[in-house]
Design a protein that fits this description.
- The protein has 190 residues and is α/β, with parallel strands linked by helices.
- 28% of the residues lie in helices and 26% in strands.
- The radius of gyration is 15 Å and the shape is globular.
Length: 190
């Protein structure tokens, strides 16, 4: 596993905002992936999606969970241009989110500057019966990481991180995931 070395946190934020604006309107997640998550976790009153850029995740989840509270985070200052989206760095914990969400989803772990800490933050946002869904595609990983996608890891390295932070991997979604990737389905250890 390799992580791009930024000069400081401000440089990281600058590059993430620039990358977001260069990809304005892009939606990475496939609706089929969200459909499979909804089948895997058919009840959710609270859903949190991290690194959502154009709010595709929230929009797709809303079709399955019309009454749920759904929030997306995006580090860029254009976050509020999109529905159900707030400007927030997903690497940073919001105390009011700890233990709150039935579903936490992201396909943006490759944008993390400290993946173990980020995954721990996401884990702590899960409700007692919550599930964390981490979509990742090692085939699209940038060798050595770069300013846009700082994390370069294999699927196995992501799996190892999830296990290191005391998550149980209760399944994997592999069908119809973008780029031939997969979605790790995780629960907190009881």
């Amino acid at each position: 596993m390799k992580i791009h070395n930024y000069k400081d946190y401000d440089e990281y934020v600058k590059w993430q905002i620039q990358t977001n604006k260069e990809k304005k309107g892009w939606i990475y997640v496939k609706p089929a992936t969200i459909n499979q998550i909804a089948k895997n976790k058919p009840f959710a009153a609270t859903i949190l999606c991290h690194g959502t850029r154009a709010a595709g995740e929230q929009t797709f989840f809303k079709k399955h969970f019309p009454n749920a509270e759904i929030i997306g985070t995006e580090i860029s200052d254009n976050a509020t241009e999109y529905p159900m989206t707030i400007q927030h760095d997903f690497n940073v914990q919001k105390p009011e989110w700890v233990g709150k969400f039935d579903i936490v989803y992201s396909n943006a772990i490759d944008h993390s500057i400290d993946p173990k800490a980020t995954l721990s933050t996401w884990r702590d946002q899960l409700s007692q019966t919550g599930r964390l869904y981490v979509e990742y595609c090692q085939n699209q990983s940038i060798p050595g990481g770069n300013v846009n996608d700082p994390l370069d890891a294999t699927d196995q390295e992501i799996e190892n991180l999830l296990l290191e932070i005391d998550l149980n991997i209760v399944g994997k979604i592999t069908k119809d995931v973008k780029g031939g990737g997969l979605v790790f389905i995780c629960e907190k250890q009881k």
